[in-house]
Amino acid sequence: MNAILGGMYRTWLRRVVKLGIAMAMAGGLVTAEASMWLQSASRDYVYGVDDVPEAPVALVLGAQVYDDGSPSPFLAARLEIARQLYAAGKVKAILVSGDHMDWGYDEPGAMWLWLNDRGVPAGRIIEDHAGFDTYDSCARAKRVFGVDRLIVVSQAFHVPRAVALCRHLGVDAAGVGDTTMAQFHAPWWQASLREYGAADKAAFDVLSGRDPVFLGRPETGVQDALLQG
User: What positions does the domain DUF218 occupy (predicted)?
Assistant: First the structure.
């Protein structure tokens, strides 16, 4: 009896292992396909600060803000690119989009202050307080703020996904990615590796065609900023 039970257990275990391997391979294939799509869809639209074509608006995607309200180095590096784009006349307005789901945590507010403190006029900075992820930020730029063409700014490992999503959602997007934070090797590579998982989510968002977590009514902040000349 023990021999029979042992044989049944080994057979069951082999089947479980085979199923696990098959599922892992299928998941890996989906991730690879999603990553290749993001790279392909964005390949011709990623630039440096100096050679990116002009656009009315820069969209800066949010990242961590510290308890004292200051942007993390990764976010500050994104904001510095946006500041340079504005100073060079590449954009006329900056849309800062990030997480403000909790009252005490305000990514767009911190981004606004950083840019304004460094010379970007208050009327040229527009806050999107419901940019809870990249897909939402791109969708809201189009559907809430009425932006048809923009330069999306993030870290270099993130920009292909941001450009691909914005373009899929009907925004003529180019991208500029920060590389200065690569000096922090561990967090840079950890974030780069997370992009593989983010590619799966991007594919789900595109295939589902979901609405942003919060859509709300159209806002005129970007148009008002651009009317300043």
Answer: 57-196
Tell me the pTM.
Answer: 0.86
φ/ψ (deg, to 5) at 105: -130, 115
**Structural domain of 121:** 38-226
54-112 per-position pLDDT tens digit: 999 999 999 999 999 999 999 999 999 999 999 999 999 999 999 988 888 999 999 99
36 CB-side CA count, 13 A: 6
Q: Has residue 5 been placed in a domain?
A: no
Q: Is position 10 within any domain? A: no
Residue 139 makes CB contacts below 8 A (sequence gap 6+) with 169, 211, 212, 215
Compute the C-alpha angle 182/74/128, nearest 5°. 145
Nearest-CA neighbor of 154 among 180, 190, 187, 186? 180
CATH number of the domain residue 125 falls in = 3.40.50.620
